[in-house]
Amino acid sequence: MSGTTLGMFFVILAYIAIMVGVGVWFSKKNNNVNDFYLGGRKLGPLVTAMSAEASDMSSWLLMGLPGVAYLSGIADAGWTAIGLAVGTYFNWLIVAKRLRRYTVAAGNAITVPDFFSNRFRDKSHLLLGISALVIVIFFIPYTASGFAACGKLFSSLFGISYVPAMLISAVVIVGYTALGGFLAASTTDFIQSIVMSLALIFVVCFGVQVAGGFDVVIDNASRLPGYLSMTNTYDPVSGSSNPYSFISIVSTFAWGLGYFGMPHILLRFMAIEDERKLTLSRRVASVWVVISMSVAIFIGVVGYSISKNGTIETLSGSDSETLIIKIAQFMSGHGVFAIIIGGIVLAGILACTMSTADSQLLAASSSISQNILKDVLKLKISEKGMMVTARLTVVAIAIIAVFIARDPNSSVFCIVSFAWAGVGGAFGPLMLFSLFWRRTNRYGALAGMVSGGAMVFIWKYLVRPIGGAWDVYELLPAFLVASAFIVVVSLLTPPPEQEILDEFDSI
Asked: HEC states along 471-490?
């Protein structure tokens, strides 16, 4: 390991030590499971905003988005980013405040399955059990994708074998999450959002300078047909432009629908101390998302000019996702300060992944220990016992995720895409109807959740392979089918009890 690489390694090591320290600090502040899983509803507006967005972005922000823009131009990355930005804004605008208020009124629910069960007075616990299983089914692989991304990062940077690198990453994430719970995860996510922002700033400034200036970057990109177009894409193999179809635009834009059902984001809404501060949180989160994704896409465009002038090697296929890593490695060869900056950039990539993995881990853990063991199976566990159970569940889920992530050839992006669609399709429509349509009843809620989750599998493996007009991201048809089932089944079955309607009206 060279001196430069060793220097960056110590920067990342210091960053990891800070994350674990946060977990140890907050371990003293968890007195019960409400604290462990929802932070006692004590989050401030800035931590609420930035932790929600950091937990959402994952390594996709610093690896996937620049990689797509580098290869094919701004259309694919741009429409996806627009969809996510719109979804982010409307999730904060129409869901956040009402959900914060409703979860308190509906039996002080501390998890999303709790809210669904309490909202519809589901004494059978079917809603609770099925929604908890949905989270477990989709979030354990999601967590595994985070472990895998960390393992691939350390393996490619420092020459460590993939499995040991992945295990070390998992131990760190599990450590601060199991110790500090929701408050630790939210605080570390807030710190990680800052590190991610610094990484984007350093890379884009250094990249433009090395490329020869902003004018050179734009001029080089303009010479590639369709590269800077939102209606065409550049084909790096043929060197020609291909139209970006309306179906493709709708498909990528549909990513934004997933926000309405993501437990790790919704929990931040539920956890803020003062619902009146959610307006500030919305503004901060929306601005950060738009700026960060725009910069990430522009880094992909800058990357083309850097590789064209020979500063870094030309990247192809999935190697394009290592663009920022290559820039950071080149950057670190320019003195001690540059080594530190390079280490911060690489820590930013690690931060993206860790901030998502810890939140998925906590959401899956709460579904098992709180919703399935305590609420569905009715195990009588003391308050102290529940805290032990909560931490042991985090460890158990992590072990399963490590087993899933053991294959270094697994596709991180495919796992994330499918998990996002699964949870978004099952929970997104139900969350919106639960908050905004008083006629929604228990039967419609069950039908919508099951049909949405099932349609993700059906569309992904049976319909989408047909291609053509059917090649649409599975979240969109799942969302539409679930919405239709909620409306039709609710109207065909008895209306909600008066108690439920009165509670809804009060919110």
From this structure: CCCCHHHHHHHHHHHHHHHH
Instruction: Kindly compute the dihedral angle of the four CA atoms of residues 41, 42, 44, 45, in this order, to the nearest 10 degrees.
Output: 10
> Amino acid identity, residue 153?
L
In the block, tokens 């900056």 appear at 341
Q: How far apart are CA 79 and CA 88, in angstroms?
A: 14
Tokens found for residue 436: 């905004």
Stretch (H or E) spanning 235: strand 232-235
pTM score, whole prediction = 0.86
Per residue in 262-308, pLDDT (tens digit) is 888 898 898 888 888 999 999 999 999 999 999 999 999 998 999 88
For domain 3-27+41-411, give the CATH number. 1.20.1730.10
CB 69 within 8 A of CB 229: no
pLDDT in tens, 423-434: 999 999 999 999
CA distance 232 to 248: 11
Phi then psi for 242, rounded to 5 degrees?
-120, 140
**Percent share of the chain, pLDDT over 90:** 31
Which tokens go with 3? Answer: 């001196």
Q: What is the pLDDT of residues 201-212, one digit of tens each?
A: 888 888 899 888
Identity of the amino acid at 329: Q
At 266, the amino acid letter reads L
What angle, 0 to 180 degrees and rounded to 10, lies between the N-to-C axes of helices 97-105 and 263-271?
Answer: 80
Whether the Cβ atoms of residue 60 and residue 221 lie closer than 8 Å to each other: no
The separation between CA 274 and the C-alpha centre of its own chain, rounded to angstroms, equals 24
Q: Who contacts 384 (Cβ-Cβ below 8 Å, separation ≥6)?
A: none
Residue whose token pair is 């980013």: 81
Q: Which residue has the tokens 């110790």?
A: 179
Query: Is 410 within 8 Å of 452 (Cβ atoms)?
Result: no
Scanning 371-461, the segments in alpha helix (DSSP H) are: 383-404, 412-436, 442-458
DSSP codes of every residue in 241-275: EEE--HHHHHHHHGGGGGGGG-HHHHHHHHHBS-G
Give the C-alpha separation, 92 to 99, whole Å: 10
Domain boundaries, the chain: 3-27+41-411
